[in-house]
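Table 4 source record.
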Amino acid sequence: MDTKHSAEMFKHFEKQDEVLMEAYRAMSHELHLLQVVEEMLMQKLYELMNITGLLKKEKRGDNDSSPFRTYKLMQLEIEAHQQESCTSCRIYREAFEAFLGSEPFTRDLATSSHWRRGGRGRGRMESYLNENFGGVKSKNSTEESLERWRKLVGVVKNPKRRFRFTANLSKRSEAAAMKRTNHEKLRVAVLVSKAALQFIHGITLHSEYNVPDEVKKAGFQICPDELGSIVEGHDVKKLKVHGGVNGIADKLSTSTTNGLTATEESLNHRQNIYGVNKFTESQVRSFWVFVWEALQDMTLIILAVCACISLFVGIATEGWPKGAHDGLGIVASILLVVFVTATSDYRQSLQFKDLDKEKKKISVQVTRDGFRQKISIYDLLPGDLAHLAIGDQVPADGLFMSGFSLLINESSLTGESEPVNVNADNPFLLSGTKVQDGSCKMLVTTVGMRSQWGKLMATLSEGGDDETPLQVKLNGVATIIGKIGLVFAVVTFAVLAEGLIKHKFQEGSYLSWSADDALELLEYFAVGVTIVVVAVPEGLPLAVTLSLAFAMKKMMNDRALVRHLAACETMGSATSICSDKTGTLTTNHMTLVKACICGNINEVNNHEEIKDVCSQVPDVALKVLLQSIFYNTGGEVVINQAGKLEILGTPTETALLEFGLLLGGDFQVARQETKIVKVEPFNSEKKRMGVVLQLPGGGYRAHCKGASEIILAACDKVLDSAGNAVLLDESTFSQLKSTIESFASEALRTLCLAYMEIENGFTADEQIPINGFTCIGIVGIKDPVRPGVKESVAICRSAGITVRMVTGDNINTAKAIARECGILTDDGVAIEGPDFRSKSLEEMMDLIPRLQVMARSSPMDKHTLVKHLRTMFNEVVAVTGDGTNDAPALHEADIGLAMGIAGTEVAKESADVIILDDNFSTIVTVTKWGRSVYINIQKFVQFQLTVNVVALIVNFSSACITGHAPLTAVQLLWVNMIMDTLGALALATEPPNDELMKRSPVGRKGSFISNTMWRNILGQALYQFIVIWYLQREGKGLFQLGGPDSDLALNTLIFNSFVFCQVFNEISCREMEKIDVFHGILENYVFTAVITCTIIFQFIIVQFLGDFANTTPLTLYQWFACVFIGFLGMPISAAIKMVPVGCK
């Protein structure tokens, strides 16, 4: 190597060292910042501890000295600091929020008089549940709270089944570790690529890459592993070796303008070499896996052992088949329970699988065969040209080809929140990341499991969804009752065994034990174990899952896709809905109907009126107008496969582009005349978008459009009737402003279009000017209110739910639409975003309850409103959103609702429910289903707790007083199945009715096990206990039973009456407060089928399976008596419902 070349390389190494030293200095600066922040934190935390001390001394009504205000003001102060993009502020805020969430602070805050709302008077069980199982929220629960309740659940018969639909925390920690590894890997890759850029600049590199034979035969020049290493490793050197992005495109046999050739044969070849864009998913578990899991129940295993011993001893002493009846009866009961349970669980798993498929349905715009088209993300292949815009998810690994102002958020992959600027110098795009700003055309290189997102998803998918608050609470209920049941079971067995031993002592044969004695003792043990089976309500938490799965499936048919289970139950508690206007309350089918160009106001509803516009507007002004429409747009006019013009873009862009075409413009021709220098996409903070063009004759021109009053305020000139730019005087400004108000009062969406000549040159690194523009004109776009919205808003009002409109539109437009929808009332307040955010905390406390419309709002205004509603007013808030910037509000809300049609992938990712038809009426349907889920679970809990109470008390009291249990192990297993799996199927799948929307919402502080439920449980349990006890004492005389089989006949009557009491109680539980429980019963096919099957099986068990179930056939009169005893529970239940109780 010559000296000159060595010196050149040495310089490159020096530059590389400079890059690395710069990175090191940045890290050192961060460490210094952390030390400064640590000192700040210690001081602030000391102040906060003083505040929590003040909480204890707080006097009721002393608002001025209340730490509540101090706490709120400190929050607002930190929010102001958060607006600055400094690391220290972010760390400071995170530490502050961590402290606010700590137990001492929240406990003291909860006992404060300002926060204590209805805490007294709750039942002990509710208090216990809130204290020990209330830490899990509907979303964003901490790992600690998820771990805590698991440790508290002591008595679990079948952990595999109980915890099946809960988060896998170990898998989540694996995913978090992978994110950290990705972060480090990408950081190193970026540093290395910077150094490599310095090193390889000006040096000719030679390729040592050999193309595999199978790749060559398929017609390609690069293999998938090589492609993966380039993008994943940010390998600039390899990229240059392969000829850059265009070289990669050539090697993938794709055109950089027309995309792939989409013949079936070529796509199949490509798929065989590079794979499909799908991630490895866990296989659907077969039915037999669920059978095996159901068999893992500890109590069933013990019973199975008892059955085997009973079989062995029985056959040895009494022979076959008589000696096998008891053992075979238990075995048959166990198998029946197992198969019914497994069938129910298997069906649930299939429902969740279907819903998972729906969640992953994402479409992407690509160019194939020269045509823009929308395809499924799963059909994407290396070589495809994908078009990405703000809010999209990057569908695969790839390379940037062209675009403007592209910012990528890689936090989903790396955990790093700082966006990355992607351009020709840094062209690497990773799948799963989000487009935060800008737009681009991307060359797809790596798909499926070869991509970084694919590897991460394989781990993430195994983590599962968080468990819902109801699931956790019912796990708590199951734990409490399980412990009580265990005590009862032990005592029952002890009492029964003590009776046998006492009898043996009295006979003097306590040292002589026969096989019959052993069988009797074994039967007592089986009864004790079966009491545990009945007492531990394993079905309670699983009933929530069953009800939620059923609701989610039905909601899909009603055009709502639930992404998170908890959203179903939380939506039923919603007290406030903050809704967008465009596309949610309106149809989102926009047409431009009015225009004020060069001072002339025209309606443009038909071709004749458009001709009038063309005749009135001078040619020079028309040219500038068309240039503004065709260049300053996020939409596009393309020729589709049918050979017709098709407009792509948002409804607003579509309306403007359609207007431009009607004016005689040609989009394709216009776009080729001028070069675009810079694009600033629409920003909901600035309410504007802009573009800078390099004109053919030299010079630059900027165009901007957006919120009319904002763009008009940025103008100092206006086009007059002759098309000349003249100064914008006060009278013309007032005239244009009144035009905006006139359009807005007609419920039209107004936009102002403006331009300016840039004389001193312009580069892409500069910002587009924000004032000094010339107003071209103002347009009014009509977006009609959706049919049925007014009725839906009225339903929400009758249901105690406040609907608020939060929109970026003009306040007059917003007020007109809000009045038409019935949202804005005479005593309601409409306010603009800038006014809202300027209010003090005290003013907000007074304003928010009356606030019904917020116009010209920014995403942070929406976020602030949602946060104050949740924290200051304790509301359960649902919020709609469709844009990327709506993600913080969707995340903050109790229920985030993203729009399925207009919504970006970022918004959908942050949402809990996706409204597939973007219709407000669908939101009301989701609320109705949410209330239905909540009430259905309450019905099931009421039913199951009644059976628990009666079964425990009857068997325990009988064992203590008479020395034997009236219900055998087989009978108790059958009762357990009625109240567990079949009961959940019947009551947890009740469809919603219109009456649900006439009740007040549960809200955030509602008790799950209400006083109404306790009244019904205790009243019905008392009746059943009295009936069973009376039958035990007087049954033989009542039914004139005699002979050796009288005890068996009486126990059969008790068992039969007990089962029919549960059947009719199940019907009574359909309504917790209403007398009429038969309304709509035949419309619920599941309920009807469960009740019918229960009665049929009960008849078979009693009449034909006596040897196995310890029953004897009953006469017609006895059957009638049993049914009548069960039926009598219904009028008694109706009478109990008339007893007034407190509202909690």
